[in-house]
From TrEMBL:
SUPFAM superfamilies: Formate/glycerate dehydrogenase catalytic domain-like, NAD(P)-binding Rossmann-fold domains
Function: May play a key role in the regulation of the intracellular concentration of adenosylhomocysteine.
HAMAP family: AdoHcyase
Species annotation: Candidatus Thermokryptus mobilis
Amino acids binding substrate: T58, D129, E154, K184, D188
InterPro entries named in the record: Adenosylhomocyst_ase-like_sf, Adenosylhomocysteinase-like, Ado_hCys_hydrolase_NAD-bd, NAD(P)-bd_dom_sf, S-Ado-L-homoCys_hydrolase_CS
Enzyme Commission number(s) from the entry: 3.13.2.1
Domain of life: Bacteria
Gene that produces this protein: ahcY
SMART domains, per database record: AdoHcyase, AdoHcyase_NAD
GO process terms (BP): L-homocysteine biosynthetic process; one-carbon metabolic process; S-adenosylmethionine cycle
Catalyzed reaction equations: S-adenosyl-L-homocysteine + H2O = L-homocysteine + adenosine
Keyword line: Cytoplasm, Hydrolase, NAD, One-carbon metabolism
Listed PANTHER family: ADENOSYLHOMOCYSTEINASE
Protein name from the UniProt record: Adenosylhomocysteinase
Length: 425
């Protein structure tokens, strides 16, 4: 496949020098992944393996890609969202002879075209964020499946999709759910999404958060993080939910909980984080305040029904970068950020490098696990698998070490006590 090495399509190769500096900065903030790179680059365990990746093209993703390459892999990459690619990073990767097909502002057709290009290397490993790559292989290129030993999935939406495929008997090769690792979703999803979502809103709007009624739709890991950070900036946070347990958690965490129909009347800023379509629809737009701001931090652009909003509007204009003003027929204005796509990646830079360090360490280790099992002749069934608990612990321990933090260890007596079922009062 050497003839495909370094094939690319990016916005402008002249942006590469700026991208290289940004990647360098990310490397300085991602010590766990860099330690794994240093550990495995001499033995090159990925030599002879081809990875097709579909994941946001950010400086952090570039560190992961470079780690795979330095550890022997051949890589071909596309972005997993039409508006999340950082063009400086795509250019930097192309300049380093990495096959990359990504630019900011892709159409939907161009987005899927880019995925198709990554498959020209005939991958035996896949790495996905949202499962669009995996689904493309299954629906359009089943001939590639016999050579694919497995894949990994980065995000909640993708894992849900893949578990549904597995349940229906439609999944044809094994997937490791990186998203469900404790060192991923309790950190990346909570602290990463929380901080980067507010960062995206502030960069796009420059509004004062303090005193605003901020409505957070969904109280999963991502919604929890957003609610925490909004409250930290002084917002009055309202949570909407459909799951009783999640709603109860939000109440006991000190947030107001109510249906979206009620929240829509009083909200100043709306943030969807559910992974479900039609969270905000015409019935909600009808009762929103003049000047309400609406945005999404879920993977797909389906949570805010913009078709409904466009029908209600007599005019739409871009009033600021990543801010569209919908002027409704009754004179009210509703502002939509990032065209309803991921506000933290479209209007900002995505999660901080420090938190992606653990997520991408998990990606590296999960891909390595697939390779090592293949080399030993072990074959996984086509199901969705969790990260092993020992991997979670290893990555957490590495992260603490890089932070200069030490913790206690169990004594032998304590270890015995834990396993002694006869011990009582």
């Amino acid at each position: 496949m050497d003839e495909l090495k370094g094939v690319y399509k990016v916005k402008d190769l002249k942006l590469a020098d700026e991208g290289l500096k940004q990647i360098s900065w990310a490397e300085s903030r991602m010590p766990v992944l860099m330690a794994l790179r240093e550990k495995y680059k001499k033995t090159k365990p990925f030599k002879g393996f081809r990875i097709a990746g579909c994941l946001h093209v950010t400086k952090e993703t570039a560190v992961l890609i470079k780690t795979f390459v330095e550890c022997g892999a051949e890589v071909s990459w596309s972005g997993c969202n039409p508006l999340s690619t950082q063009d400086t990073i795509a250019a930097a990767l192309a300049k380093q002879d990495i096959s990359i097909f990504a630019w900011n502002g892709m159409s939907v057709d161009e987005f899927y075209w880019a995925i198709e290009q990554t498959l020209h290397i005939k991958p035996n490993l896949t790495l996905d964020d949202g499962a669009d790559l995996i689904f493309t292989i299954h629906s359009k290129h089943p001939e590639l499946i016999p050579d694919i030993i497995g894949g990994t999935e980065e995000t909640t939406t993708g894992v849900k999709r893949l578990r549904a495929m597995a349940e229906a008997g439609a999944l044809k090769y094994p997937i490791i759910a990186v998203n469900d690792a404790e060192t991923k979703w309790d950190f990346d999803n909570v602290y990463g999404t929380g901080q980067s979502t507010l960062d995206g809103i502030l960069r796009a709007t420059s509004i004062l958060i303090a005193g605003k009624n901020v409505v957070v739709a969904g109280y999963g890991h991502c919604g929890k993080g957003v609610a925490m950070r909004a409250r930290g900036l002084g917002a009055n946070v309202i949570v909407t939910e459909v799951r009783p347990i999640a709603a109860l958690k939000a109440v006991l965490d000190g947030f107001t909980v109510m249906p979206m129909k009620e929240a829509a009347k009083i909200g100043d800023v709306f943030i969807t984080a559910t992974g479900v379509k039609d969270v905000i629809t015409e019935e909600h737009f009808k009762v929103m305040k003049d000047g309400a701001i609406v945005c999404n931090t879920g993977h797909y652009d389906v949570e805010i029904n913009l078709v409904h909003l466009k029908k209600m509007a007599k005019g739409v204009r871009e009033i600021r970068n990543h801010v569209e003003e919908y002027l409704l027929k009754d004179g009210r204005r509703i502002f939509v950020l990032a065209k309803g796509r991921l506000v933290n990646l479209v209007a900002a830079e995505g999660h901080p490098s420090e938190v992606m360090d653990m997520s991408f360490a998990n990606q590296f280790m999960a891909q390595l696990r697939l390779v090592e099992m293949f080399k030993k002749g072990k074959k996984l069934e086509p199901k969705v698998y969790d990260i092993p608990p020992e991997q979670d612990e290893e990555i957490a321990e590495l992260k603490l070490k890089t932070m200069g933090i030490k913790i206690d260890k169990l004594t032998n007596e304590q270890k015995k006590y834990i396993k002694d079922y006869s011990a009582g009062t």
